């Protein structure tokens, strides 16, 4: 469920950053503030939380697979076709799976809980690029 502040901020359209909770793959919990329109992956990395990004944010590998809480997931625009194509191949996707490189920080993520599952499968290897 969205926080009251997220609903208010979304309705007036003014905010420079949003804060969300990240549960790292080791189970530790972190509060992360990201600049609006920044990728969730960039915000997580800037906070010093380990997240794999083998394709460097190009929605090609699936290693930045994250899971959002249901209330915030439902408030977001659906994944693009390219993002969904990559999510189709990540190990153990959930109904609320997204790619951290494709999802951008916005007031709709304020107060969200984002989990980073354990190591995923890299859909792009160096051998595939040669």
TrEMBL record:
Domain spans labelled 2Fe-2S ferredoxin-type: 18-120
Alphabetical keyword list: 2Fe-2S, Iron, Iron-sulfur, Metal-binding
Any one Pfam family match given in the protein's UniProt record, by short name: Fer2
Stored Gene3D superfamilies: 3.10.20.30
Cofactor: [2Fe-2S] cluster
Family: Belongs to the adrenodoxin/putidaredoxin family.
Record's protein name: 2Fe-2S ferredoxin-type domain-containing protein
């Amino acid at each position: 469920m969205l926080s009251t502040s997220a609903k208010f901020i979304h309705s007036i359209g003014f905010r420079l950053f949003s804060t969300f909770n990240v549960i790292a793959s080791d189970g530790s919990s972190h509060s992360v503030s990201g600049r609006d329109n920044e990728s969730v992956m960039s915000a997580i990395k800037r906070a010093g939380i380990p997240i794999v990004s083998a394709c460097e944010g190009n929605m090609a590998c699936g290693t930045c697979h994250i899971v959002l809480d249901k209330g915030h997931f439902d408030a977001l625009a659906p994944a693009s076709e390219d993002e969904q194509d990559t999510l189709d191949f990540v190990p153990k996707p959930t109904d609320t799976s997204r790619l951290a490189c494709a999802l951008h920080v916005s007031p709709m993520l304020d107060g969200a809980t984002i989990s980073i599952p354990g190591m995923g499968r890299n859909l792009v290897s160096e051998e595939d690029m040669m």
